[in-house]
Amino acid sequence: MSLTATHTIPAPLIDVWRWHTRPGAVQRLTPPFLPMTVVSGADSLKDGTTVFALPAGQKWVARHQADGYTEGTQFVDEAANTPIKQLTKWRHEHRFEETDGQTRITDTVHTTAPENVLAPAFAYRQHQLAEDLAFLDRMGQHEENASNKLTVAMTGSRGLVGTALSAQLTTAGHEVIQLVRGNASEGQRHWDMDCPDPELFDGVDAVVHLAGESIMGRFTDAHKADIYSSRIGPTRRLAQLAADSGVSTFVSASAVGYYGTSAGDSVRTEADGRGDGFLADVVDEWERATAYAQEAGVRTVNIRTGLALSGTGGLLPLLKLSAATAMSARFGDGEFWMSWVALDDLTDIYFRAIVDDSIEGPVNATAPNPVTNAALSSTLTALLHRPELIGIPEFGPKLLLGDEGARELALADQRVEPAYLNRLGHHFRYPTLTAALKHELGKEQYLN
Fold it and tell me: Using an 8 Å Cβ cutoff, are 166 and 24 in contact?
């Protein structure tokens, strides 16, 4: 069978084509709801190779075909490895045409794969490309502004947020240096958490600090100690090094846990003080650790992240699995607030914090429309066309996380407003939960 999908991007052809040639493009366009992840992207649209990881240790090798390549107009990739090549007979033709200063993209796929599998994936790709380029336009990240291209050093670059953010930065023409704790390879530098190299930030314009022990898990004394020690000390040392190295911008992860876990009917903004609880204590000290950079004149931003929704990882796949079993994603009566943010909106916020010199201090990275857990459950089950039957008893999370862990994580009542971003007139791609879930779960329609 063949599938053809056409859409028009309100951007010049040269910008759209260039975006596709850059590292990170294939990561940005790979749907999170498909069982495949990018291992390596092609270094050339003419004759490069992209490798995807599949379940059960399998892989998909997509090889670009030189005889189907026309600079600025077309590139073609085919499945090249056994048994994928024999099973799918995959050939994907990407064609680009300029029309009235915009770019018409036509994707034609010849394959044995069924259309009901392909259609959501290509609808996702359309939306993702259009939104990424629209964001770059809003940020003034045009190619003619070559002097604005930055070198960004990033911890946690291989996590959920770091992977997406790195790809978004590199498709915009910025360079990302991964700070890794193991042996460093090309594009990486070794980061000793306890004693970072004084030259770690040589040639670096901005630092993005995402690393930290996962907060998921039972809140034992050992786990709480790991959560604390992986954030406070390493952040302080990086902030001090940034101050000494002439870095212009230091962006550090933070969390809405700062406001505590008992919102009730109160909406929290950046103007509010910290709440109570272990995570509120940790976040408070985490942010204070960045003061070393701020006091030295480095523009410092603390991204207070809400519940990041991604079909790739985090909490959403677990909630989806629960809802798909004909139960629900509701804990108890579900009458507590969840301050969520779509992954692409979260990376937009980080990206803006890096390039927008007007942003400084704490920034709530949450969607403008928080929901109750009950509303999240009903929205999710409706999109999955599943009945919402019984809720998940509150003792369930408590068995897994302990009383304190359940209170601080699964059952946390947090109603947070992105007041800082709202004052800036910041554009959210997915301001409503329905829009975010449609994108992450493959429920969108073709643009045209």
Answer: yes
